[in-house]
């Protein structure tokens, strides 16, 4: 009788252990499935946003900018048109062209480091000096296309903001590799801004957050602008 009870107790413990193990395995599967689904959903949303930006940019270029250019050309041949109207139309044309360029497709099959360098130096002119450090030393080939797209767009937005609002004459971008992370430090000597009122910065924050990165801003009016990105 004692042995019978002992056997029942043994099999009960074994059965209980197996049930607990099975429950734990099911729990791990559910948690893993959740994170896989969340990552796939986030990736799909990022790709959808990128495709939408590219489509709008093409539409702006093909329809709005081209139509504006045709109207300007037609009006220039009319001697009775006020030149100030032509000047204003040219400004509008330039804005639409810039919007198209800023949201055009990025060919990630090409050398990303070179594309990024060309993007940044494209903002350099007689009034603004752009300095980059270690950009070519970054392991761009090991970074996903999703992260490359986010990096490209965020730096493009920072540079565009600099050109339109900061009136900076000197900009530095330092790239560093620390462990598995890439650190990008942006700094300019412009007029700075009130971060609490700079709603446009929220867009860059969303882009970086979508790839599990971080971006921090530091600025005050009259003392330049800094951005620290970790991806």
Describe the structure.
- It is a single chain.
- The protein is α+β, with helices and mostly antiparallel strands and 231 residues long.
- The protein has 2 domains: 1-104; 106-231, Histidine kinase-like ATPase, C-terminal domain (Heat Shock Protein 90, 2-Layer Sandwich), CATH 3.30.565.10.
- It contains 5 helices and 5 strands.
- The chain has helices at residues 2-76, 83-102, 112-121, 145-166, 201-209; strands spanning 129-133, 170-178, 181-188, 214-219, 225-230.
- Strands 1-2-3-5-4 form a 5-stranded mixed beta sheet, with helices on one face.
- Strand 2 (170-178) and strand 3 form a beta hairpin.
- Helix 3 packs parallel to helix 4.
Radius of gyration: 27 Å
Can you identify the CATH superfamily of the largest domain? Histidine kinase-like ATPase, C-terminal domain
**Low-confidence runs of at least 5 consecutive residues:** none
CATH class of the largest domain: Alpha Beta
User: CATH topology of the largest domain, what is it called?
Assistant: Heat Shock Protein 90
Q: Span between N and C termini?
A: 66 Å
């Amino acid at each position: 009788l004692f042995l019978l009870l002992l056997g029942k107790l043994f099999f009960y413990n074994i059965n209980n252990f197996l049930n607990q193990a099975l429950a734990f395995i099911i729990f791990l599967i559910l948690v893993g499935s959740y994170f896989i689904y969340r990552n796939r959903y986030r990736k799909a949303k990022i790709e959808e946003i990128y495709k939408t930006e590219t489509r709008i940019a093409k539409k702006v270029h093909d329809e709005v900018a081209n139509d504006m250019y045709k109207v300007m050309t037609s009006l220039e041949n009319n001697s009775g048109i006020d030149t100030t109207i032509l000047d204003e139309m040219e400004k509008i044309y330039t804005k639409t062209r810039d919007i198209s360029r800023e949201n055009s497709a990025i060919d990630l099959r090409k050398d990303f480091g070179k594309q990024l360098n060309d993007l940044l130096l494209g903002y350099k002119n007689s009034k603004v000096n752009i300095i980059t450090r270690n950009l070519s030393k970054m392991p761009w080939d090991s970074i996903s296309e999703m992260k490359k797209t986010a990096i490209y767009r965020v730096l493009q937005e920072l540079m565009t903001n600099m050109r339109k609002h900061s009136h900076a004459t000197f900009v530095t971008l330092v790239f560093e590799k620390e462990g598995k992370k890439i650190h990008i430090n942006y700094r300019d000597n412009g007029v700075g801004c009130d971060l609490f009122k700079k709603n446009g910065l929220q867009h860059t924050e969303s882009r970086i957050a979508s790839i599990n990165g971080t971006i921090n801003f530091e600025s005050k009016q009259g003392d330049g602008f800094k951005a620290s990105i970790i991806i």
